Amino acid sequence: MRLLSLLATCLYLLPSSYADDSNLTEPLSSHQILPESFKPPQVFKHVNLVRNINLEKSYVRETINVVVENTDLGPQDVYYFPFNADTIGHIGGFEVRDKKEPSKLSFPAEVVEYDPYSPTQFFRITFPSPLQPASQVTLSISYHILSSLAPLPALVEQNEKQYLKSTFSTYSPSCYPTSKQKTKVKFPTVDIPDYTFSPERQGSTFTYGPYENTPAGVEQEASARYEFTKPLIYATLLERDVEISQWGGNLATEERYWLTNKGANLKSQFSRVTWAASNQQYYSAPTSAIKSLNVPLKIGSLDPYFTDDIGNVSTSRFRSNAKEANLELKPRYPVFGGWKYSFRIGWNGNLKNVLRKLKTGEGYVLKVPFLEGPKMGEGVSYERVDVRVILPEGATNVKFETAVPLVASEVSLHKTFMDTLGRTTLKLTAMNVVDGSREQDLIVSPAKIFYLLEIPSSPNSILVVLLIALLQVTYDYPFSAAFRKPITIFIGVLSIFLTAWVVGSLDVSIGRK
């Protein structure tokens, strides 16, 4: 299991690119595998490091700001960042930037080792330009960790507070010696009954350190137990379909969720009376159960629906006006710790708001969110996300280039009503995703996309003025392909009439002629 987890993580963290001219999937590129005895070259030192751990959501978010100095005699452009082998399988959103120039793109980062016998796995970060001897660069390293929080106690009463335990090292993960460092931990409340060591406490923030002259790879395990009377919303799988109908001018979106609550399980049986008493119209007590989900939609969204394994769920509310569109979902039952709930939601939108045709060529540009879904204060994490972009029938030359970590990508055919060959479909799979990816966009275009914030030199390129990871896809839609379905319908109807005329003209009487 450990080997499979590490293998999946390494594939997940590979920078992804895809080019398809014949609708055939190309395999992801391989990466360097380092031996178990590998030690990063000691060519850097950390002059100053500040690590921030945020526990305000149902997953852990970490940001490390560090001043890195080249202590070698020659220029260096490869920097290593370590994780324990048991942790790296839950890492997502790993990103490294120059803190002094945040508008620039993130540095290329990839997993370079997944030896199952090695206790440490490494990210290899490549600087855009080599760091000269005695020179410094300030890095901002950010990532999130899924499934690292555990309820303690694991069983609670229905109206009891929930406490989580977080275990971490007071020293930052590092392959290099650090002159000075400290770790700050931000909790959601001030109710923190148990913790180890004696940190400096200021409200809901703990500070460990400063520590001086810390060797590379040193750890000092600490833990804290804090109140978090909110659900730990976790989706084992999300399937998201975005379907384009250029003849109808419609963008149909459907999302299918397999949801669970990773919070504390109930100690006693669920009581509907107790639940109703604690959740009245004008008062709602804090609870660790999932009782509702808020899904912000694009302005102008229409015809939403909410169904589960039984059928239509009427306990939902859709509000739409000129300023917002919001879908409020209430499951059939409150989802307590250890419980599961699977459902699907969908809606329609105006295609012209997200699709435009390029002035030259036969290409179209589609821009839709990579991930929508619930937006909750406690956060939502996804173990696996499958996104399908169902393009019009006859779309060709599908390509994409993305900084979003993917484990798989393919272009296939999806057959639906009145299709002849099937609709071109792009399928992307990502792992360890959090609700912060709602802000990441999916751009489908027939032009080459430039990541740099510059004026593109090509008339068919697009300027992407966003500081987040984007997914760019290219496809061509010939003029002749647009008439494929109308011609098919016409031929089908004509065939029916011709068949009826031929059958009607036959003499099937049994009398004498």
From TrEMBL:
GO molecular function annotation: transferase activity
Any one annotated GO CC term: oligosaccharyltransferase complex
Q: Which UniProt keywords apply?
A: Endoplasmic reticulum, Membrane, Signal, Transmembrane, Transmembrane helix
**Transmembrane helix: present as a keyword of the record?**
yes
Similarity comment? Belongs to the OST1 family.
Where does the sequence pass through the membrane?
Answer: 487-506
Where does the protein principally reside? endoplasmic reticulum
Q: How does it sit in the membrane?
A: Single-pass type I membrane protein
Look up the signal peptide feature and give its range.
Answer: 1-19
**Species classification:** Eukaryota, Fungi, Dikarya, Ascomycota, Pezizomycotina
| Biological processes annotated in GO | protein N-linked glycosylation via asparagine
PANTHER family (UniProt xref): DOLICHYL-DIPHOSPHOOLIGOSACCHARIDE--PROTEIN GLYCOSYLTRANSFERASE SUBUNIT 1, RIBOPHORIN I
What top-level branch of life does the organism fall under?
Eukaryota
Q: Does the keyword Transport belong to this entry?
A: no
According to UniProt, this protein's pathway is: Protein modification; protein glycosylation
The protein here is known as Dolichyl-diphosphooligosaccharide--protein glycosyltransferase subunit 1
Listed under subunit, the entry gives: Component of the oligosaccharyltransferase (OST) complex.
Q: What the protein does?
A: Subunit of the oligosaccharyl transferase (OST) complex that catalyzes the initial transfer of a defined glycan (Glc(3)Man(9)GlcNAc(2) in eukaryotes) from the lipid carrier dolichol-pyrophosphate to an asparagine residue within an Asn-X-Ser/Thr consensus motif in nascent polypeptide chains, the first step in protein N-glycosylation. N-glycosylation occurs cotranslationally and the complex associates with the Sec61 complex at the channel-forming translocon complex that mediates protein translocation across the endoplasmic reticulum (ER). All subunits are required for a maximal enzyme activity.
Compartment(s): Endoplasmic reticulum membrane
